[in-house]
Amino acid sequence: MRHLLSTKDLTRDEAIALLDLSDEMAQVNERGLRKLPTLRGKTVVNLFFEDSTRTRVSFEIAAKRLSADLINFSAKGSSVSKGESLKDTAQTLAAGGVDAFVIRHGASGAPQALAERGWTDVPVINAGDGTHEHPTQGLLDAMTMRERLHGFGSTRGKALDGVKVAIVGDIAHSRVARSNLYLLKTLGAEVHLVAPPTLMPRGLGLQHYDLDETLASVKPNVVMMLRIQLERMNSAFFPSANEYSNIWGLTEERFARLSDKTVIMHPGPMNRGLEIASSVADSPQSAIVRQVANGISVRMAVLFNLISQERQIHE
Amino acid sequence: MSEFVLKAATLPDGSVADVKVSGDRIVEIGQGLSGGEIIDCSGLNLLPGFVDLHTHLREPGFEQSETVLTGSQSAAKGGFTAVHAMANTNPVADNAAVVEQVWSLGQRAGYVDVYPIGAVTVGLAGERLAELGSMNRSIAGVRVFSDDGKCVSDPLVMRRALEYVKAFDGVIAQHAQEPRLTEGAQMNAGAVSAELGLAGWPSVAEESIIARDVLLAQSLDARIHVCHLSTKGSVEIVRWAKAQGIRVTAEVTPHHLLLTDESTRNYDPTYKVNPPLRSAEDVAALREALIDGTIDIIATDHAPHPSESKDCEWNAAAFGMVGLETAASVAQMVLIDSGKSTWMRLAEVLSHAPAAIAGHTEQGNPIAVGSIANLTLIAANVARKISRGTASKGQNNPYADLELPGEIRHTIYRGYFTVRDGRLAEDGRH
Q1: For residue A315, pLDDT beyond 70
Q2: Are both B69 and B82 inside the same structural domain?
Q3: If both were cysteines, with which of A233, A272, B99, B342 could A278 make a disulfide (CB 3.0 to 4.6 Å apart)?
Q4: pLDDT tens digits along A209-252
């Protein structure tokens, strides 16, 4: 693995190895002294062209736990707002000596352009590109599912064969949905997508419009709710927040009809009371807080994997 | 006055003959001709000089992308003897002064006839009609009008434009793209766009405009020309309209005849173009329509850009690709090498028909005694690997590294060799 641009590029063995490494990192995170010297002297650049406190901070903590130096670059107030191109920005930062780029960008494919167009030769980690992918989110979701379904401490080497996952919401504009779909399928899970027809992209996965019918017939082990953006109403994707919530939201009534083993997930940030009822988000079946913690472990694993491999190539 | 004989050339009907040119005219066709220089053309296909109805020459205003001179040279290399310069320059070609400027730049370059296309609306804004009559009466004699790059989407403005240009047998060339259905659109809407997470450009955004426009043309008994058809549905609408006797003509670009949205998978903006590259099914329908006559012409939509406009992330990149120097090869592939059509048809779609749509009498002439000597000679049996760089300033060449059939050996523009043995003349015709 040279870059992490898409979960689609990961083989089953690579994905399981990354998840196993993430579990080891989680153990570090639960120790009293949460720091490894592994990436001392290495520099990671957070290249954020879109606002994202959660992902940026998660990568920042991950890099620091591995003793790497971290530079945060955000587009606001930078030369980008004065019209500098992605190529020039990356080359300027790389000139100072960089061991990995973590990039969040509003344009789908921007991380791939950075990795493959010959602008720079350092590893690139996609931290979310447009409506394309968010691979570390996919990995942290898979890590969370392994823990919940196989039990803590007995996840090593395991995949998600036969696990049924329903992903509900704005699939069309969701990079989380795409990264989960590809990774979960690679790991053997059965992925069901549920959305209003206007928010369902053509040709991806097993598709359903009716949430109640899907929950009843599929009996998913995991229900993952996606954030709905209210601006979508302006483009007539759906009529109102109220109607969306009634038809596609995980309300208390819907939650009550699920098995008490069903794991509830959400990539955050949540619209409580819109796509997910507050009490559902806070229930013992919810893994939402654990997802955030696992995000740090997964990002440590990815940084470690890419940068240490880079070292092997050069040494 | 120069005089030469093209010896033993293969004419579009398959016969082999000598063609004698004196000055700017064909003066004799037959066997064993002599007089002036004798040029061996055995094994070469002689065709009427190509006429491109859709070319972006970028001047005035975007000279870093292309100039009338460099675009004309690229056209000559591609076997063209005439191009039509699109109006989306800066300033926009929406008045007599700008079209006359482009016209005279073309004359000064001297590699092809450069016919300016006038904008339909002031500033391409789609609101008020540009001075179509004044452009027609200028020395540029504009008869083709287009807001290309933008759609004349307001049905009232479109209706008026179609009707108004009947005064001088003009034609509106529509860029069919419903703007509301393509807000932020990046590529063909389909399985590939869903996977790449790029905003989709639905086929119906093109088809709904074409359907509306052919009905408007029918109600007014006006002519309508549809630019760069890209979908199977558009083909079906045009086929239906022609069956009704509606006066519609349609063009297809070389890239829509060859490439699909699969090319966009690595987010390389070289393949970003408007309308977008579509599916293999669309490509097959376009090829069939070109062969059966539903589509009248091939037009390049040659759209050069400087490298910085493409060396960036997909969303930030400009739309467009170059195409003048590969158009004949794609035409040969689709019509001749497929075994499905003829050199006569190739001459029709690249020369006679585009000249007729624009109403030119000195381009697209048959290869006959008395015709203006606008001629192209192709070595059809040669396969060549396409290099990225061309005579155009644009490096946005989607054909780079592909192997395509056929090579332009000579281009003769009004009796003057703009390309001789594959090499561009150092000077234009003056």
Answers
A1: no
A2: yes
A3: A272
A4: 999 999 999 999 999 999 998 877 778 899 999 999 999 999 99
Range of the domain at A43: 7-134+293-314
Same-domain status, B290 and B408: no
CB contact under 8 A, A133 and B315: no
Let me know whether A168 and A300 are in one domain.
no
A152/A20 same-domain check: no
A313 has a pLDDT exceeding 80: no
Using a CB-CB cut-off of 8 Å, the residues of chain B touching A105 are 313
- Total number of domains in chain A: 2
Residue A264, domain CATH: 3.40.50.1370
Average confidence (pLDDT) over A141-152: 97
Distance CA(A137)–CA(A161), nearest Å, equals 19
Angstroms from A40 CA to nearest CA on chain B: 32
Model pLDDT, residue A79: 63
CATH number at residue B108: 3.20.20.140
Q: Which of residues 169-188 of B touch A (CB under 8 A)?
A: 183, 186
- Kindly compute the dihedral angle of the four CA atoms of residues A178, A183, A189, A192, in this order, to the nearest 10 degrees: 0
Which parts of chain B sit beneath pLDDT 50? none
A146 and A33 assigned to the same domain: no
Torsion region of A29: left, alpha or beta (phi above 0 gives left; psi -120 to 50 gives alpha): alpha
| Nearest-by-Cβ selection for B197 from A86, A87, A133 | A133
Question: How does pLDDT run across A53-92, given as a tens digit for each residue?
Answer: 899 999 999 999 999 999 998 876 566 666 788 999 999 9
